[in-house]
Amino acid sequence: MAITIDRDDAQLIDVPRGLANVVVAETRVGDVRGAEGFFHYRGVSGVELAAGARFADAWRLIALGALPRDTAETAEWRDRTGAARTVPEEVLSALPALASSGLDPMMQLRTALALVSAADGRHALYDETEAERIDDAIRLAAVAPTLIAALHRLSTGQDPIDADPTRDPISDYLRMLSGVEQGDRLVAALGTYLTAAMDHGFNASTFTARVIASTGADLASCVAGALGALSGPLHGGAPARTLDMLDEIGSPERAEAWVRERVRSGGRIMGFGHAVYRTEDPRSRLLREIAQRLRGDGLASERVDLAVTVEQTVLRVLDELKPGRALRTNVELYAAVVMEACGIPRELFTPTFASARLIGWGAHACEQVADGKILRPASRYVGPLV
């Protein structure tokens, strides 16, 4: 088994582009086994947790290291995370200006989380105890959905809706966004997606959070860097662009011609390909089934039918024109369809994704800073010589 090692010599080590398969740290948070199409959180199947929409349980597992053992621990966790969803008054008063600033929702979220951290008087991770670091992580993950919903409502001329600490976090998020109660089926659908989105190995945003945490910085700074990485169209910015792609295709009848032209021209097809999975992304399979059930129950639009047709067409055309290429559906295709069915505006797809991934970032940041080693790779200079 590969492990990280300490070296004190000056010999450079060449690694693959993108650090593919390079072990840079050891973690107890979770793992992705790409060849198997499997991922887990602290040894518990992420697919099983997500299929049961066990968002609160999975959050506790990642943050505290264990699932709740009984109803008392479940209630204690609900109370702890529920209380952390409230926005400080001084931050609430700053949100209208932030919502009208012209910044995109991800930038607004970064700023708002930094304001909450400052209002709470949070410190650098280097100076905190393990318990204080965990509390930081819980606080930022808990308050993020409240901030996303409040900023969105303000930007559309509506008043924010206060968080209800007694409610399930997923149903409360949808209520704070829309102002109305959403049905159990939609709450469960979004809960499945967000449970599956909490953590997924050393992706770009998680690695960014760990790099910043290795310096001992405060958690809000770690999260700000991770949010910046997640906003990229090759990472968490993909779901909204997936809907753009479906809009461009328009109907199932146009899928064949559109896909063939895109493959032949070498253009990117959003919602396909993954850095780790060489089999079907298990999250995609799970969300496809949910999207189709919502469609069957009249809770999702014809977009589901189009997404299924596009997926089948892409896989068939790739097998024909690019045989042997390991390019399969990733989570973004059906994540976009499910979020749209739940009434989440397209511009909030990535912030919503981030609200779940904050849970993983917090756990990774706490783990990295405890290691005590700053992440400082080397580079090989190839420019002109002096």
Task: Give a verbal description of the structure.
The protein contains 17 helices and 3 strands. It is an all-alpha fold. α7 packs parallel to α8 and α10 packs across α17.
Short description:
It is built from 17 helices and three strands. The protein has 386 residues and is mainly α.
Sheet with the most strands: spatial strand order: 1-2-3
Q: What's the shape?
A: globular
Question: What's the rounded overall pLDDT mean?
Answer: 92
Structural class: mainly alpha
Number of helices: 17
Q: Any low-confidence stretches, pLDDT <50, length ≥5?
A: none
N-to-C series of helices and strands: EEEHHHHHHHHHHHHHHHHH
How many DSSP-defined strands?
3
User: In whole angstroms, how far apart are the ends?
Assistant: 43 Å
Portion in helices = 55-70%
The major sheet is characterized as: 3 strands, antiparallel
**Rounded radius of gyration (Å):** 21 Å
* Binned strand content: under 5%
For the structure shown, list the relevant keywords.
386 residues; mainly alpha; 17 helices; globular
Annotate the secondary structure layout.
Elements: E1 30-33, E2 38-41, E3 44-45, H1 46-51, H2 55-64, H3 71-83, H4 89-92, H5 95-99, H6 105-120, H7 130-155, H8 169-178, H9 184-196, H10 204-213, H11 219-230, H12 238-249, H13 255-265, H14 282-296, H15 303-321, H16 331-341, H17 349-371
Antiparallel strand pairs: 1-2, 2-3
